[in-house]
Amino acid sequence: MTDPYAPADLGPLRLRNRTIKAATFEGRTPDALVTDDLIDFHAEFARGGVGMTTVAYCAVAPEGRTERRQLWMRPEAVPGLLRLTAAVHAEGAAVSAQLGHAGPVADGAEHRTPVTPSRMVSPLALRRTARPDAAHVRRLVAAHAEAAVLAADAGFDAVELHFGHNYLISAFLSPLLNRRRDGYGGSLPARARLAREVAIAVREAVGDRIAVTAKLNMTDGVPGGLRPDDALRVTRWLESDGALDALELTAGSSLLNPMYLFHGTPPRSEFAAAFPSPALRAGLRVAGPAFLRAYPYRPAYLLDLARRFRAALSMPLVLLGGVSDGATVQRAMDEGFEFVALGRGLLRTPDLVRRMAADPHEEDRCTHCNLCMPTIYRRTECPVRTAEEAGA
Ligand SMILES: Cc1cc2nc3c(=O)[nH]c(=O)nc-3n(C[C@H](O)[C@H](O)[C@H](O)COP(=O)(O)O)c2cc1C
User: Fold this and answer.
1) Helix (H) or strand (E) holding 249
2) DSSP state, 232?
3) pLDDT digits (tens, 9 = 90+) for 147-195
4) Quick one: which atom of ligand 1 is closest to the CA of 301?
5) Ligand 1, residues 60, 65, 161, 262: which to mutate, most atoms within 8 A of Cβ?
6) Nearest-angstrom CA–CA distance, 143 and 134
7) Closest-CA residue to 297 (of 188, 370, 385)
8) Ligand 1 center to 261 CA (angstroms)
9) What is residue 114's DSSP assignment?
10) Interatomic CA distance for residues 56 and 54, integer angstroms
C-alpha cells in the first residue's frame, strides 16, 4: 500500500509527500506582481503539510491573462517570486508555477486582443480575437520556454503547463475551437502539435533543473469539444515524447462549461454579482443556468474517467477533483495514482494534509457550495471559513 504522506520523487524533484495544492487563482496580485498577501497564502498551505503548492496561473504573455491583475512572467516579477519560493521552502514544501496562456478565456484587458486558434468573437473579452500565424505560434511556444526558465531562476521546483479548461493550448486541442487547416489544426495530431511542442520546448529550456508537469483535459465536457478517446491519444503522445514528469488530469471548459471542473452547487447569482463588467453581469443573469450547470458532487468525481488514463499510461499521474478527505487520498493511491491535487478542500482547511496524515479518517469540511469561485474577482478565499473565523 502506497503511503501518501511519505516522500516521493517527481522527476528530478523529491517531495516530502504525495499531495499537491492545486492552482486556485489567488486574486492577490493587484499590480500583477507578488505581494506579501500572496506569499502568506502559499506559506500557509506549506505549513499545513502539502508536498508542493502551486502558484496559480502565471501567464506567459500579457495578453494571455484572464484578468489584468494576473501576474505574467517577466524579469520584473522575479524578485517577488524569489521571496515567495523562499517562504514556501522555509516551511518544508516545494512550489510549482502554473504557466499558461488564456487564449479564448483572456479578458482582453488594456485593449489587448485575445489569441485563439481560429477567429471568433470572445464572449469574455466582447471583441474579435486574433488567429496566430505560424510565426506567432512559434513565439507562443518560445514564451512558454522563457517563462519556465524565469520560474527556475526564481526558485521554483516545478512548472505546471496549463493544457486544460479551453485555455489556449486546450483550445488548440478542441475540434470546436480549432478549425485551422494548417499544421496546427485539422487532424488530432495537428491539434495536439502545440501541446507537444510546448512541453518539449520547456523541457529543453530547463533540462533537469525543475520538474515539468501539465494539467490536461480528459474531456472538455462540451458538445463538439475534446473527448476522452482523443485526449487519451494525446496523453500517449505526450508520454512517448518524454518531456513531462507527470500529468494532472482535469476536465471542463472555463469558456463554455466551467462547472464541469468543479461539480457541486453552481453559485449563479454570486458569480453574476462578482463579474467585473456590467455587460458580462447582464449576460450571465440571462445565460446563468445554461452556462453554470449543476453536476452533482461526489468524492473523486473525475476518477471514473481518470481510471481509463491510468490503465493506458505508465507515466506518473495526479488525481484531481474532489480528493479532499483521508479515505479518498488513500483510494487514489490504491487506484495507482502517484499524486493527488487538492483545491477547494485546502481553501477550506489549509492544514488538511497535516490532519489527514495524523488521522487517515479525516473528513472533508468543504461543502462544495463553490462560493469560493466568485471570490477570485476580489481576493480568493473560502467564505465559509472566513465566516467561521470571524465568529470564533
Ligand atoms: C477559487 C478557484 C480558483 C481556481 N483557479 C484555477 C487556476 O487558476 N488554474 C487552474 O488550472 N485551475 C483553477 N481552479 C481549479 C482547481 O485547480 C481544481 O481543478 C478544481 O477546483 C477541482 O479540484 P478540487 O475538487 O480539489 O477543488 C480553481 C478553482 C477554484 C475553486
Assistant:
1) strand 246-250
2) H
3) 999 999 999 999 999 999 999 999 999 999 999 999 999 999 999 999 9
4) 25
5) 262
6) 14
7) 370
8) 8
9) P
10) 6
Among the atoms of ligand 1, which is closest to the Cα of residue 160?
11
Catalytic one among 167, 184, 260, 297? Answer: 167
* Secondary structure tally for the chain: helices H, strands E: 14, 12
Ligand 1 midpoint to CA 240 (Å): 28
Q: Is 318 helix (H, G, I), strand (E, B) or coil?
A: strand
Residue 249 CB partners (closer than 8 Å, separation 6+)? 216, 218, 302, 305, 306, 309, 317, 318, 319, 320
For ligand 1, atom 2, name the residue with the nearest CA: 24
Whether 167 is catalytic is: yes
- Cα angle vertex 194, ends 74, 107, to 5°? 55
Where on the phi/psi map is residue 245: left (φ > 0), alpha (ψ -120 to 50), or beta?
A: alpha
Question: Quick one: which of 313, 345, 316 has its CA closest to 333?
Answer: 316
Give 11: exposed, middle or buried? Use CB within 10 Å, 0-12, 13-18, 19+.
Answer: middle
Q: Which residues contact 278 (CB under 8 A, 6 or more apart)?
A: none
CA distance 110 to 128: 15
pLDDT value of position 263: 94
Residue nearest to atom 4 of ligand 1 (CA): 24
Best CA proximity match to 137, nearest among 197, 97, 187: 197
Q: Where are the alpha helices (DSSP H) in 48-187?
A: 78-90, 134-153, 168-173
Contact 180, 186 (CB under 8 A): yes
Contact (CB, 8 A) for 350 and 338: no
Identify the pLDDT of residue 287.
75
Ligand 1 pocket residue status of 53, Cβ below 6 Å: no
CA of 186 to the centre of ligand 1 (A): 30
Residue having the nearest C-alpha atom to atom 18 of ligand 1: 343
317 membership: H or E segment, kind and range: strand 317-320
Predicted confidence (pLDDT) per residue in 312-347, tens digit? 999 999 999 999 999 999 999 999 999 999 999 999
- What are the cell numbers at 357? 496524515
